[in-house]
Structures are given as structure tokens and as C-alpha cells.
Amino acid sequence: MRLHVLYNQDGEILAAVQLDLEAPVRARPISDPGKGHRVADVYVPSEYRHYDVGAICARFKIHDAAKFPELKRKE
Fold it and tell me: Given Cys at both, which of 32, 46, 55, 57 links 51, Cβ 3.0 to 4.6 Å?
């Protein structure tokens, strides 16, 4: 599963939509750079694919120190 996420400078996910073929997306969250918001497309690890989008947003944050942003479990 892939998600299009809107997140802040701390990596907290503010909004997300699923990007898979079985969930066609008509609207996507957009960033507001003035508020420190960013967007990224990220893959959900296979062991968490059974979670819904809301559960993923609550349990994960975005880690963007690497070349590409990725989901990491909140500690």
C-alpha cells in the first residue's frame, strides 16, 4: 500500500490518502511551505497493510532524513 501524506517538520502526519489501484484518489492534500508542511508518497510496510489510513497516521510518523521520506513507528 502506498500513501500520499501531508506532514509537518516534526514528521507528524496531518493528512493522508491511499494511492493504490483499488482506492482511486480524486483529491490529495497539498503542502503549505509557509507553515512548514511537506508532502510525500510513502510505502506502508507489508506487516502493517491491514491497518486503515487513520490507524497508520496515529501510529507512524515520517522520517525524511534519508534521501526519500519513509514511515517509521512512533516511539
Answer: 55
